[in-house]
Amino acid sequence: MAFESLSDKLSAAFKKLRSKGKLSESDIKDAMREVKLALLEADVNYKVVKDFIKTVSERAVGAQVLESLTPAQQVVKIVNEELTALMGGENARIEFASKPPTVILMCGLQGSGKTTHAAKLAKYFKDKEGCRPLLIACDVYRPAAIEQLQIVGERAGARVFEMGQGDPIEIAREGLKFARDHGHDLVIVDTAGRLHIDETLMDELKRIEAAVNPNEILLVVDSMTGQDAVTVADTFNKALPITGIILTKLDSDTRGGAAISVRQVTGKPIKFSGVGEKIEDLEPFHPGRMASRILGMGDVLTLIEKAQETVDEKEAEKLAKKLQQNSFDMNDLLEQMQQIKKMGSMRSIVSMIPGISGKVTDENLEQGDRQLKIIEAMIHSMTKRERENPSIINPSRKRRIAAGSGTRVEDVNRLLKQFDQMKQMMKKMGGLNKKGFKRRMKFPPMNM
């Protein structure tokens, strides 16, 4: 989980403060020393850490904190505010052209994820803004780069313009003309990366930029490379008028230093973060929400947004009616589980819940994902009639379901028992109106 190690160390530092009724300057100095070491171990830029600790310390030793009834909470509040400011303060949005199409130029080193994230952007704006994106294949050097863009473009539901292994500047120019002629209001140009920054790469990017006059130039940076990511960002920023950064692999066990340092070093905002391998695993970067995650305070707003995106209004009303009639069946349970999966892995969901992420082990998270798959397998092994009326499942049917799902009869018995318990709980909820139901319609995974 991103920032897990950093979150644990910061939580430990703040726990020591909370154990004291009143704080002295010495207490705060000791805590800031631990915060400093935690940030440096997370690969945050040294100068950034030094300035951050200085700012926080100056605010933390003020009378408002030292004389407060809850000084430890005041210190955490200050760290949260300064961390948010360090990463940009507000969510930085894409600047759309007043007259379509809006052109986004992607750049970055080879292997940073440019091609995949070009398609992720296309998917994001197609779904959120109703755009008609066009992907332009200007990486003519890497083997199978064009084919890769076509594959991820198809997953995103976006058209791909390509002219084979031709001149990338001419391809970009012709692609933009194609977009205008065919009504595409968003153009995303995928460019070639290199294993290292060189003059040839930068010269080509500058010529492509001149050919398409982009509204945004987004630099794709791999967060797992730590300080190297910040160095790359700084070098690109000096050569091109970068407008924003996409930070990839924030779902991995990265130390997180790039996310905290890159805005301060380059002056350019992080606009999106890649949080998984799926085409929809792209999130707008909210500094305040990220600061809360880093401090182990969760990210409730993003969790709510994900839940709202997965809830189909008509299906919610249909399910509410079933609850009122006490006719909830295994098909409905399967559908609810699939909606939970759309929100992401257990790991990503738990990371957004305040006070829980640090208490749940990797083993627990893997077990939760595994349990969902086991329950799905058992339901898929049931006949249509059994799903609609689980009460008919007798011992011979249980043996068949267990054999078909690779589980044991005990597992099937446990599922049926927990399903009955869930139905009893929902029967009590049957009197909720639709609005109240939608607030409570997400069910936790059952223990196996």
Question: What does the model show?
Answer:
By secondary structure, this protein is of the alpha/beta class. It has three domains: 83 residues, Four Helix Bundle (Hemerythrin (Met), subunit A) (Up-down Bundle), CATH 1.20.120.140; 194 residues, P-loop containing nucleotide triphosphate hydrolases (Rossmann fold, 3-Layer(aba) Sandwich), CATH 3.40.50; 136 residues, 434 Repressor (Amino-terminal Domain) (Orthogonal Bundle). It is 57% helix and 9% strand. The protein contains 21 helices and eight strands. The chain has an eight-stranded mixed sheet, with helices on both faces. α11 links the parallel β6 and β7. α19 crosses α20. The longest helix has 21 residues.
SSE layout and pairing:
Layout: H1 4-18, H2 25-41, H3 46-60, H4 63-66, H5 71-86, E1 102-107, H6 114-129, E2 133-138, H7 145-156, E3 159-161, H8 168-181, E4 186-191, H9 199-212, E5 216-222, H10 227-239, E6 244-248, H11 257-266, E7 270-274, E8 282-284, H12 287-294, H13 300-310, H14 313-324, H15 330-342, H16 346-350, H17 362-380, H18 384-388, H19 395-405, H20 409-429, H21 434-439
Parallel strand pairs: 1-4, 1-5, 2-3, 2-4, 5-6, 6-7
Antiparallel strand pairs: 7-8
Helix pairs in contact: 1-2, 1-5, 2-3, 3-5, 5-12, 6-7, 8-9, 10-11, 15-17, 17-19, 19-20
